Amino acid sequence: MVPDKIRIKDIAEHSGVSVGTVDRVLHNRPNVSKAAREKVEKTLKELDYHPNMYASALAYNKSYTFHCIIPKHESEAYWEEIEEGAMSAAEHRRDFHINIKIKYYKRFSSNTFVKVTEESLKENPDGVIIVPSKLDLTRKFTDELHERNIPFVFLDSYMPDLKPLAFYGQDSFCSGYFAGKMLMLIASNEKEIMLMKQMKDGNVASKQQENRETGFRHYMRDHFPNVTITEVNLPLDEEREKYDDILEEFFSTHHNVHHCITFNSKAHLVGEFLLRSNRRNVQIMGYDMVSKNADCLRQGSISFLIAQHAYMQGFSCIESLFEAIVLKKEVTPVNYMPIEILTRENIDFYRRTQL
């Protein structure tokens, strides 16, 4: 008998049980005796039966709700592309009634992360995508998800001890190391590099940015130990005029700095200042192909951008939940995004929605 032509009725007759019993075994439902389950499983093995999970999920006609818990963000930012990718994946699987609910927390506010995660638990979603906050706060949430058998995927920052279903993001250390190597191809004769950061209460926005900086500093220590790395903090939520004051003071007193780097998506804050102040002998390197960064890259104030494929990450997170929850498939646990470098010459050929 051809495996894909085997009917539940055939399995029932071969096993000597009812069609309903076979259905409960195939869908791992309760109220099946040990003897009956063993008969059905023996028949499945003998007939080399492999259920069509795709067709079965369609026939089940259930709806699914996935929560996506991410930082509150500006328009056209990295996180907006994450959202677009997630929504596109839901549309791609619209026959399976996948619903996405985006929930936002403030990046440096533990209280808002706790509030949002508590709201999520009250709504009892089928799966969750999480951009982690502090380890202890994230662990409290994920422990409860494990208790309820709700699969979750980590995005942006990887915390393997919390045992997520999957992770999507760059290998942050390698990414920072690579960034240092690319920067020093054009800055090998420099004695000082400016590192632009955005911090609050002494903390950067994410573990990912910390790991990138660690990778970068490792590269510099290994290959350019005599180059000074000078940090400049542009505080969050400040008006642009204050940024201009900070940057003007820095460049006016550091005439030998011609190259800068940042590990967030805000390289344009420095890039736009360089254009406004007509400083054509300074460039910055940063992350993420958001529109403001792309404009600065085309105009020459940004030298390189490292792309993270945010759209792809959002899309793939939903796909992993879909495959694990709906199709009952195993998924790849660790998924590192490509580390791609964009320049003025190739940025217009970069397809952020390509999968």
UniProtKB/TrEMBL annotation:
<feature type="domain" description="HTH lacI-type">
    <location>
        <begin position="6"/>
        <end position="60"/>
    </location>
</feature>
<dbReference type="InterPro" id="IPR000843">
    <property type="entry name" value="HTH_LacI"/>
</dbReference>
<keyword id="KW-0238">DNA-binding</keyword>
<protein>
    <submittedName>
        <fullName>Substrate-binding domain-containing protein</fullName>
    </submittedName>
</protein>
<dbReference type="InterPro" id="IPR025997">
    <property type="entry name" value="SBP_2_dom"/>
</dbReference>
<dbReference type="InterPro" id="IPR010982">
    <property type="entry name" value="Lambda_DNA-bd_dom_sf"/>
</dbReference>
<dbReference type="Pfam" id="PF13407">
    <property type="entry name" value="Peripla_BP_4"/>
</dbReference>
<keyword id="KW-0804">Transcription</keyword>
<dbReference type="Pfam" id="PF00356">
    <property type="entry name" value="LacI"/>
</dbReference>
<keyword id="KW-0805">Transcription regulation</keyword>
<dbReference type="InterPro" id="IPR028082">
    <property type="entry name" value="Peripla_BP_I"/>
</dbReference>
